[in-house]
Each structure stands twice: as C-alpha cells, then as structure tokens.
Amino acid sequence: MQGIDIHPLTGNPTAAWREISQTQKVFKLNVKPPTKSVDSDKVRFVCMSDTHSLTHNIKFDIPDGDVFIHAGDFTKCGQQEEVQEFNRWLGELPHKYKVVIAGNHELSFDPTFIHIFKKHSEHTSRHTGTILDDEIPTLGMEKDALNEAVRVENVKQYLTNCIYLEDSTVNIYGITIYGTPWQPEFCKWAFNVPRGEKCLSKWNLIPENVDILLTHTPPVGHGDLVCSGIRAGCVELLNTVQQRIKPKYHVFGHIHEGYGITSDGKIIYINASTCDINYIPNNQPVVFDVPLKAGV
Ligand code: 5GP
Ligand code: MN
Ligand code: MN
Ligand code: MN
Questions:
Q1: 217 Cα–ligand 2 center, Å
Q2: What interface predicted TM-score (ipTM) does this complex get?
Q3: Ligand 1 in reach of 97 Cβ (< 6 A)
Q4: How far is Cα of residue 154 from the mean position of the Cα atoms in its chain?
Q5: Which runs of consecutive H residues, i.e. helices, occur in 230-292?
Q6: Beta carbon of 256 within 6 Å of any ligand 1 atom
Q7: How far apart (Å, rounded) are the C-alpha atoms in residues 126 and 154?
Q8: pLDDT band for position 278 (50/70/90)?
Q9: Is there an atom of ligand 1 within 6 Å of 258 CB?
C-alpha cells in the first residue's frame, strides 16, 4: 500500500489548504435534480446527510432511485427512539438499497465513547456512568437525553431497513461502497479522533478498489468551509482520497454550511448535508447516476 505522509500543517486545515490549493483547482458543480428516470444501464444514487431527527420537517420530495445514501448525523444524540424513528422513515423510502453511516451525533454507535466518564472512575462503564453538567457537548443537548443515549445497548439492531457501514464495504450492482464515521476531533462528540496520525490510521483502513467513498467528515478543501471562514476538513483524508483511493465519488456531510458539489477534475465531492447551519432541513438530496459495469 502506498503510504500517505502526515502534512506538517495537519492541525491547521485552513493553512494546509492555503498551501495545497496552490497546485490544484476546485470546480464548483451545479448539478440539478434529475427530471427523468434513470437509464437502464445506470444506477441512480440519492444522497442525504445530517437530518438530525428532523425528517418530519422536510418540505421537498425525496427523489426515487436505486441506492439511498445517508452520510451520518441522522439523530441529535443517538437515543434509541431517534434511531427507531429514523429506521421507520428509511423503511418508507422507495429505494431498493439504503446505505447509512453514523456521524458524531450518534453517541450510542461509538463503542469507544467513554471519555466523559473517565474523569470519575476508570472502571465505570459507559452504560452506568453519568454525564455531568460541565461535560455536555455543544448544541445545548439536554443532559438526560445524552445520558439515555450513551446507555443504549446494541443500537445497531434498530437499523433493520438499511445496510449500516462502519469501516466496512458493500458491493451493490458491482459498485463498491465503503463507509466510515470517523472525523477530526471537535467538541468531544462520538467517533472523534485527533488530526494527523490517528485520523490517517482510520483512512488507512479504506481499500483501494472503492468506487464511492462515504465518510461523515469532508476532506480539506471540498465542502468544508465553516461560516467563520476557517476550513474544518481532514488534510490526510484529502491526500488519501486523491493519492490512494481515487474513488469516482466521495460523499460526506458534517459541515452543514458546506453543502454542495465540487470536483478536483477527477473525483466528485458531494457534501450532502440536508440541514443548514441552523439545523433546518432545507437542502435537497444530491442525485447522481453511475454506469453499470459490463456484465452486471
Ligand atoms: P454537527 O454538530 O452537526 O456535527 O456540526 C454542525 C456544525 O458545527 C457544522 O455545520 C460546523 O459549523 C460546526 N463544526 C462541526 N465540526 C467542526 C469542526 O471540526 N470545526 C469547526 N470550526 N466547526 C465545526
Ligand atoms: Mn450535523
Ligand atoms: Mn480506486
Ligand atoms: Mn457532524
């Protein structure tokens, strides 16, 4: 496997991108929703992300297609009821396949999410620990909701209406899709890993033959511009995607204000965040058609 080097500015993605963008371009693509049904020799993908338990507020129709993709943050904090409601909503969608990853808001999905208890007792399990007031992550979530979420056992059992990917692959119509929930650390949420070596170790798990890469975080430079003007994407993810994986599509969410489609001339990057910066589900699903491989 071709090794990816840690960028010297990995901890400052804004500065790293200033340097990286000297030698590559970003094309903004304006892809309109399809007006006709998919050709018989193509597979239609319909992408959403960051719906945050607000699907009941969605005002637009969700286009039909063969594969529905959700790039994480389907709940506010991963409570059992939220997961069950999301699963019920998925069940009503017409798509033949539904592929889902978790995001940082799905606290109950991250088996390593124990840091908040460690301070009190190294031996307290995540299911019996209690979150204290000064440890509540952002978004002003209620303490009771967070405590309930982190105690849910075996939460994946409630996702019966989709293929749930977590550092894993699925092959649909001969198209290989890999999904992973990890993102650079921010405000102590789930699936947080420090920038640099730790993030890269997650991206090093991605196999090379992937056609569609599904992550919760954007790579640096594409759909990662935060409203404050800084970039929040992962530098090592961009390098992994461009130098090693070279997928046709990279689908993600997480930075709500980065919604949209871009390209570096080879790979198409889709920030499919349905919710905007105010957590209002305003952004339309992103649709693309992939030609079937010969013989499939
Ligand atoms: P979420 O909490 O749903 O994961 O992210 C919501 C918003 O938080 C994003 O749209 C973005 O404005 C902000 N955010 C998330 N991750 C980061 C990060 O790593 N850095 C910065 N500066 N903002 C972030
Ligand atoms: Mn989100
Ligand atoms: Mn490849
Ligand atoms: Mn997120």
A1: 10
A2: 0.98
A3: no
A4: 21
A5: 235-240
A6: yes
A7: 13
A8: very high
A9: no
